Amino acid sequence: MKIFSQKNATRFWNNIKTWASGKFVAKVSGKGLSTNDYTNEDKEKLQGLSKITVDSSLSSSSTNPVQNKAVNAALGGKVDKTSIGSPGGVAELDSGGKVPASQLPSYVDDVVEGYYYNGQFYQDSGHGQQITPESSKIYIDLSTNKTYRWSGSTYVVISGADGLALGETAQTAYRGDRGKVAYDHSQEPHAPSDAEKNVQADWNESDSGSDAFIKNKPAALPANGGNASTVNGHTVKSDVPENAVFTDTKYQAFTGASSSAAGKAGLVPQPAAGDTEKLLCSDGTWAEEMSDEEIDAICV
After folding, report:
1. Are 254 and 264 in contact (CB under 8 A)?
2. Could you tell me the pTM of the whole model?
């Protein structure tokens, strides 16, 4: 009978490990065994791979599969983030898709409204808060609509030497767009649909609803105007002469002079037919025909 000593056990264990080293895979804690076979072909492929490094900078001629020409071309069309909003770079866009005013030239957004008074611009119409002038800004006078620029020493009217500005006052030019609307309107028919043409008045029109009817016309006209045949019961060409002259002056009969009273001017006595050689004497009578000697004795 032989005894299996400790020495024999140690040798037996070493022999088993030697035998099993080429036949089994040692289990590693936390890992499981693969169900795929690792072949010699796979091993040769891995051995054929060379060490790969990433280029330190972009290059258009690199053959590195990690950073090739296509990647460089794609990155070349992008904007460097550090250039956004920086001098010499590109402008930013706000939430509304617009360039912020801080990145625009001053002449684009610097239009200042105020009140021009005694060579200065003020924020208020009472001329209490003065505006500091700048050469890169445009100033609009709210009281006249004139535009100015700062020359460095004074405000200069931009709209011309005469200071012409847009507006609706005596010294301003009317807006062209409104003027065109007014002109176009004047060239089109714009009378009301129920408008009527002018009608000549007719004296003989008796219909008060007619446009030709004359309201408040007199019932008759004076004898020296119109075509009335009678005035206050007198008939023209009958007891009123056709060429009669109507006047407020009333004439009295001629009064001859006497030895104690002067005569009065008036209508002379009517001479009878055939009295062509008679004379009107100062007593208001027609004297019979006399000889020259008798006439001289009476009238001289």
Report:
1. yes
2. 0.27
